[in-house]
């Protein structure tokens, strides 16, 4: 394999950003690229991808089809992605042709919950207790280590609570392990947090770093319901969150925007839950409350542009519009605030259809 | 001719907005439609139209080609336009097929400087003194009426100072009249204003009305250089500007966003300079400083959605990026604020290539 291509100069206006994945994140990335005078080309296997409606060109293909991927990459100046479950092999294949970020290493680490937790531990960051479950030998020890109850998860491919089970005994763990196909998993101890938060940060090709103020996040049924900035985080927690993100970005040698999901503990400590190597739902409020949104920030980073100023000029509360809630679009349209609908062809239960951001004048600098 | 089609119900998410004109205004309208989950289809004669890069589908054709226009209109739920110099006949042709706004009447009036001034006078609004120049009979009286010097303009098709000449005598007027092809024109008296301003407003199908805070505008070489909100307008002038816009919108029976260019006089009075029946350069700051931008507001109005809240959550200064200034995109990218580049294929002198908006926390509610 040849060395991965690196970016020698910023992609100038008129250049083309390739985006793998055509969902709402790819859509908002394409719109951000357009704001900077860049064209976007989207690759996705779904012919009805929302991102296709707003990009300059698109390719319908499978992420495993390396021929189609190569033809696509050759038409782009740089390539990036909207979600982390693209095969690392696909990314390596693109990297031979054109700069691609985030890179295969960051993806490999964050695609595997055990590798990710080990990486965080090695970076000196706090996480929930965890135990790598690779066979049925250590079910009891795993629960002893993590506490009862704990959460059993598959190591790979889970999101929005899929591939997860709460277990309170060795037997329940055995049952969950078998139910998920006896695939390698991770047991994670429950964390008695005060609230959840996240930090959205960016790292440039030159190692430059910028992080947004951290939102407080509320989940329902494992799906993000609401992000509030400023939430209950103290000024110190807000700073700590940025430092955590900086450590992670530097240790990954990351280029682009990433999110770190955090547990804010009663004593003020922040535990890392997981890393998302992409723009993140809890950062959608940056579209209105910051001059440079997380989507533009990501495009800037992967295109070799200087990172933008992440400071807020407003307070914000972002709420997801999920499943049937989208049928009430006319009610949302009457509320003061910013409505975003993603152009998805049909409503499905649990599907993120859009989001709504309420804005208020800045209360904390 | 059959009656113009009217909109019976709002265009729901997934519906299609047709946009005549593919420049930066069409581009930003298409992006605003996408934000609401609406698709956009752009019609333009320029194969390299910036709006083509961000819309769901496009048609290359001439605005006078009524067959192409009809085929285009049939694929849209509603049609709108990004600039006022589309033939009113084209709009009438579309109106037989599908609702189109702004309508032919508003276009006819604002496409003709004399009709526009007469309309404003009939609406009880103040303008500069003016004189309709239709032959060489009244050159001296025209100058007597408007003062020396005055500005002679063709009645139709002028923008950014094109088709205008400063004249200080009957002879100079005769010369300008001949130079512009002895076409009907208007002589307008100079106005000794304190500063220029504008108001961007919207009127819905139901007569609902919403206006943004008025920016103060600065021009250079007849091209908008900068819009500042809040500028030097007093709270009363800001209110007066909204009332002027409301009178105009109601008198035109207008649907959509329009701009009114104003002269703010030393004594606080506001004179109307002209009406732009479309989104306007001096309203670009609404993209960042308001939850609902002028582009989204226009899409909401023409699609039959409720108008959005026009209130600001930030102060803003918008500067155009004109001609060769766009070569310095990397410098703009380093400045804190919102950079917009329009994806135009080449830089030309005087061409609007992008804009940059600086934001600051709200200083006046």
Describe the protein.
- Two copies of one chain form a homodimer.
- Chain A is α+β, with helices and mostly antiparallel strands and 365 residues long.
- Chain A has three domains: 16-100, Rossmann fold (3-Layer(aba) Sandwich); 129-189, ATP-grasp fold, A domain (Dna Ligase, domain 1); 193-361, D-amino Acid Aminotransferase, Chain A, domain 1 (2-Layer Sandwich).
- In chain A, 28% of the residues lie in helices and 28% in strands.
- Chain A has eleven helices and 17 strands.
- Chain A has helices at 24-35, 66-73, 88-95, 104-111, 113-122, 139-146, 170-179, 235-252, 286-289, 294-302, 329-334; strands spanning 16-20, 39-44, 57-60, 78-81, 130-133, 150-154, 164-167, 185-189, 193-203, 209-211, 216-220, 223-229, 256-265, 270-276, 314-322, 338-341, 352-361.
- In chain A, the strands form three sheets. In chain A, strands 9, 10, 11, 12, 13, 14, 15, 16 and 17 form a nine-stranded antiparallel beta sheet that branches. A four-stranded parallel beta sheet of chain A has the order 3-2-1-4, with helices on both faces. In chain A, strands 5-8-6-7 form a four-stranded antiparallel beta sheet, sandwiched between helices.
- In chain A, a hairpin with a 2-residue loop joins strand 11 and strand 12 (223-229).
- Chain A is globular and about 60 Å long.
- The model of chain A has no long low-confidence stretch (mean pLDDT 94).
């Amino acid at each position: 394999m040849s060395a991965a291509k690196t970016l020698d100069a910023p992609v100038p206006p008129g250049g083309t950003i390739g985006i793998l994945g055509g969902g709402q994140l790819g859509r908002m990335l394409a719109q951000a690229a357009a704001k900077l005078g860049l064209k976007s080309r989207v690759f996705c296997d779904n012919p009805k991808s929302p991102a296709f409606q707003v990009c300059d060109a698109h390719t319908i293909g499978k992420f495993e089809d390396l021929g189609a991927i190569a033809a696509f990459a050759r038409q782009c100046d740089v390539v990036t992605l909207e979600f982390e479950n693209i095969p690392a092999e696909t990314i390596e294949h693109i990297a031979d042709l054109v700069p691609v970020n985030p890179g295969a290493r960051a993806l490999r680490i964050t695609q595997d919950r055990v590798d990710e937790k080990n990486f965080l531990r090695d970076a000196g960051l706090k996480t929930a207790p965890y135990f790598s479950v690779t066979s049925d030998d250590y079910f009891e020890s795993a629960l002893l280590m993590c506490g009862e109850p704990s959460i059993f998860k598959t190591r790979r491919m889970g999101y929005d609570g899929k591939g997860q089970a709460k277990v309170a005994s060795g037997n329940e763990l055995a049952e969950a392990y078998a139910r998920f196909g006896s695939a390698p998993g991770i047991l994670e101890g429950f964390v008695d947090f005060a609230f959840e938060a996240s930090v959205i940060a960016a790292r440039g090709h030159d190692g430059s770093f910028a992080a947004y103020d951290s939102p407080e996040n509320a989940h329902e049924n494992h799906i993000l319901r609401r992000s509030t900035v400023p939430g209950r985080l103290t000024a110190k927690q807000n700073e700590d969150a940025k430092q955590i993100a900086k450590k992670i970005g530097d240790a990954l040698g990351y280029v682009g925007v990433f999110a770190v999901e955090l547990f804010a503990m009663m004593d003020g400590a922040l535990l890392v839950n997981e890393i998302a190597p992409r723009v993140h739902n809890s950062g959608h409020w940056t579209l209105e409350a910051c001059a440079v949104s997380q989507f533009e920030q990501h495009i800037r980073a992967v295109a070799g542009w200087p990172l933008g100023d992440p400071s807020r000029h407003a307070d914000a509360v972002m709420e997801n519009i999920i499943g049937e809630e989208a049928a009430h679009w006319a009610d949302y349209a009457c509320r003061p605030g910013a409505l975003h609908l993603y152009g998805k062809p049909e409503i499905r239960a649990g599907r993120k259809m859009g989001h709504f951001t309420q804005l208020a004048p800045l209360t904390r600098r």
